[in-house]
Amino acid sequence: MLKRISIWAIAILLAWVTAVSGALADDDKLKKEELDQLLAPVALYPDELLTNVLIASTYPLDVVQAARWRSEPANAKLKGDALVKALEAKEWDPSIKTLVQFPDVLKQMSDKLEWTQKLGDAFLAQQSEVMDQIQFLRSKADEAGNLKSNKQQKVVKESGSGGAPVYIIQPATPETVYVPVYQPEVVYGDWWYPDYPPYYWGYPGASFVNGVYWAAGIAIAAGIWDWNHFDWRRHDIDIDVDKWNKINVNRARITSDQWEHRPDHRGAVPYRNKEVREKFGKETRAREASKEFRGRDAGDLDRAKIEQRLKETDHAKISDKAGEKIRDKADGKAGSKAGDKVKDRAGDRAGTRDKKVGKAGSGNVNRDLDRARARKPPPGAFDVKRGQDVKRFAERGHASRAVAARGRVGGGGGMHRGGGGGRRR
Question: Alpha-carbon distance 184 to 198, whole Å?
């Protein structure tokens, strides 16, 4: 309970920081000097580690939760397949699960939460510019003589569009990843924006080699690694769909081979940029709206909502049938059996109507009506022993048929929309 409260407190804090620092401006994008300042401490990370840092930064609350989970003594010891297995139960994005292998990087992102949120917001709003500035910073490190292949990393320099070089940084051996730690004002040369000094943080237990500190190598767990890589020329992050879905086992699957932000993992943290807010705000609202009509709604909605939907969709049909049955058996012999027959016939009628529209809602209608049959009717709901009640119900049945004949009965539409959603699972 305390952990849940603290996470919400962090979300509120992040919302406050966003509002104070940028006032949620309509066009709150960062200038190049601000991007360089922000990216300086991570631009020289190996490519795949860096892609996961960028993606994970768009889910700051997951970062905090994962860092706390990893810091627990029992979890801190997990490695390899045991770590992969333990992470299967977690709802975190695969980028977060990947970073659990790098506890010090994850801790830095959690401790410096304002930096993490700012990086994530910049990546969502300015993905191409962020990737361009990473390459710019790498070129500055190369010019200063501080970006070279060694026993920790392999640096490949390729020709990019327009003749600009593209620097690709990979682990020297695929099974082990080293995290570089450096002082930006040394590694990149004299800093070119004195009004925007670069971010910098240390790394415990690192050793200094040729201008860069190197932490101990991380033995990679293959099950949560090698599922994405930069496409520098197109400014995208390419995704191995099968690997991503395997990491995200038993949860929402993806089909696109290019990375896309998932706002459902954002939690209560607001988006800084107006365009980003509008884009992902609409997606969130559309997803929540469609969720109501997927096949899971009958199980997820509480009983009151189901009863309300049944009442709205089948009220006219049940009233119509009840009136007809009551009128035909005005002698009072129908008794409680009338209720069961009415609901059975209402279910048949709903099924027939579903067939006419391509069986769009038959599954949900039948499920809901089955639940309705399982509930005992309220006292007197179908009691037809008194003459005055018989007359009243008969008149109501005539009125319902008259309305239906004029095409004004509106209950069935909602049920069909609900069923249609169920078919789209």
Answer: 7
